[in-house]
Specification:
CATH superfamily of one domain: FAD/NAD(P)-binding domain
Number of strands: 23
CATH topology of one domain: FAD/NAD(P)-binding domain
Oligomer: single chain
CATH architecture of one domain: 3-Layer(bba) Sandwich
Strand order of the largest sheet: 5-4-16-17-18-15-19
Distance between the termini: 62 Å
Strand content: 15-25%
Number of helices: 16
Shape: globular
CATH class of one domain: Alpha Beta
Structural class: alpha+beta
Bound molecules: flavin-adenine dinucleotide
Largest sheet: 7 strands, mixed
Length: 511
């Protein structure tokens, strides 16, 4: 019997729970009498993971849809502007104190003649020795100069540069909770102690110590790594991906600035080390820093030494928090009347901020494709295929950063180049990209968070040797002129945009 969906119960109040709740309430009519009723229950004893401070530009649309104004978001979540990622020492290990770096900017590359890809011309040397992302976007120069992506008087959610945000994960969950409640989400504090199943294997109710039995038509599991509904109750299979992505531990720290007006980076700084990488995220009042590493390739003591070495004196007296990470994803994210969103559905290391992007994707699909009038099976199959595709494509993209590195200072790096650890789809792409750059036909799937140019930024930032045929590219003169124009426009953009810290002071109403 198909039963209409009138009630949704979300279990868990981290980023996944509150983002999904606030988004669904807005899209499915949380305040309308005929809308879907949404309840969120979260434990007051089990905390949220509290990391996850970097996002993707998709977050702008999500926040706008939820109904949060940009300044309200920035103040409420303690946010700064993120324009991409600065990758340090990923290509080669530092030598004699000399470090390499490249950017993965959010901007899409300029196209030649309104449509032609500049990558082959860059590969043919038409841009001289200008790094790839600097040659095809304005954003490297803006980031390098510490400039914000927009001015104070630019309209909200947009500006001359593409951008997302860094924020405080705890503050974001609180903000989304406040907004979610205003848009009709019923909020309960309580612990789910048992999940009761019906004869057909669907969830019949959940038992809580504080509120007794709770029932709904659809249950959304946002309980984080616990996977209390999708895993423990529904027996959803977990596909382990630690043979591809080796990072399985994190040491996290909140690091103070040495002075209140210290510059705030407008990119996530990801620095490669012997068995993993450090993240460094600039917030208005502190930095979020941490080392994610492979426990098969280093010890926790050595990892702490690396993190302390990176953070320097700013870390004195601070104790890093150790997190054990389960790398992989569910075989099915939607089983019967239970859907997993967030860490309960999967976790991939945070190299490209895929955690929140995957939560957003799940929330968009649920909002648009919810079988409001019953009949879960087709919707579940479609959702499961889409989420699996998204995870697999994100795994390829993350793995790319490791498997084309030339580092050899630890087995961590050489193991990452073992073909057996590289998904076949990525191996095939890398083979083809020996003779041509990635293009849009490589990624025909809608459920692809990363586009062909994201791959280009990583490949050519890391020096991947694609050999293109000069005879097939006869617009060299045009390309040269275009590369020169991009350089000039980049300088003008950097000169015309405000200092990131100064803009943040204005947005946050300080000094
Ligand atoms: P959690 O935050 O763990 O929330 C779980 C919720 O479930 C809590 O409210 C808890 O109280 C509740 N709960 C659990 N059990 C019960 C129960 N029995 N009864 C009631 N309630 C229960 N993502 C990004 O997009 N960008 C990043 O830069 C990024 N960096 C990361 C860095 C690290 C080191 C890690 C580990 C992750 C990172 N992520 C990042 C991923 C991101 O943190 C998560 O995707 C995101 O926070 C969502 O978490 P969650 O809401 O699924 O789980």
């Amino acid at each position: 019997m198909n039963k209409p969906i009138d009630d949704i119960l979300i279990v868990g109040g981290g980023t996944a729970g509150w983002l999904t709740a606030a988004y669904l309430a807005r899209r499915l009519g949380g305040l309308r009498p005929d809308g879907v009723r949404i309840t969120l229950i979260e434990s007051s004893e089990i905390g949220i993971i509290g990391v996850g401070e970097g996002t993707f530009p998709t977050i702008q649309n999500t926040l706008r849809t939820i109904g949060i104004d940009e300044a309200q978001f920035m103040r409420g979540a303690g946010a700064t502007f993120k324009q991409g990622i600065r990758f340090v020492d990923w290509k080669t290990a530092p030598k004699d104190g000399v470090h390499s770096h490249y950017y993965h900017p959010f901007a899409s590359p300029r196209l030649l003649n309104g449509g032609l890809d500049l990558a082959p011309y860059w590969l043919l040397g038409a841009a001289g020795d200008i790094p790839f992302s600097d040659a095809v976007t304005l954003q490297d120069k803006v980031c390098e100069a510490g400039r914000a992506p927009k001015r104070l008087d630019d309209p909200q959610y947009g500006g001359p540069m593409a951008y997302a945000y860094h924020f405080d994960a705890g503050k974001l969950a609180n903000l989304l909770r406040d907004v979610g409640k205003l848009t009709g989400v019923k909020h309960l504090l309580g612990n789910v102690t048992a999940v009761n199943k019906a004869k057909d294997g669907a969830i019949a109710s959940i038992a809580t110590a504080e509120h007794g039995e709770l029932t709904a038509d659809l249950y959304i599991d946002c309980t984080g790594f616990a996977g209390a509904l999708i895993g423990k109750a529904m027996g959803g299979e977990w596909i382990d991906k630690s043979d591809t992505l080796f990072v399985d531990r994190a040491l996290a720290m909140q690091v103070p600035y040495d002075r209140p007006d210290a510059p705030v980076s407008t990119t996530t700084i990801s620095t490669a080390h012997e068995a993993g990488w450090t993240w460094d995220i600039g917030l208005p009042e502190r930095r979020g820093a941490g080392y994610v590493f492979s426990s098969r390739h280093t010890s926790e003591d050595r990892a702490e030494e690396i993190l302390r070495g990176y953070v320097g004196r700013a870390g004195d007296g601070l104790t890093p928090r150790l997190l054990k990470l389960k790398v992989g994803h569910r075989a099915r994210h939607w089983i019967k009347n239970c859907v997993a969103v967030g860490l309960s559905g999967g976790f991939l290391e945070p190299l490209e901020s895929t955690g929140i992007v995957l939560i957003e994707a799940a929330a968009y699909m649920l909002a648009r494709n919810l079988p409001r009038h019953g009949g879960f099976e087709a919707a579940a199959r479609q959702f499961n295929q889409a989420m699996t595709d998204r995870y697999l494509r994100a795994i390829d993209f993350i793995k790319l950063h490791y498997c084309i590195s030339q580092r050899a200072d630890n087995a961590f790096w050489t193991d990452n180049r073992d073909p057996a650890s590289i998904p076949e789809t990525l191996r095939d792409h890398l083979e083809m990209w020996k003779h041509r750059p990635p293009n849009m036909f490589d990624f025909p799937n809608l459920h692809e968070s990363f586009k062909y140019f994201n791959y280009q930024y990583i490949l050519y930032g890391m020096g991947y040797p694609t050999q293109v045929d000069p005879a097939a590219h006869d617009h060299v003169a045009l390309a040269r002129a275009d590369f020169a124009r991009v350089q000039e426009a980049g300088k003008r953009a950097a000169a015309g945009l405000p200092d990131h810290r100064l803009l943040l002071n204005a947005v946050h109403g300080r000094g």
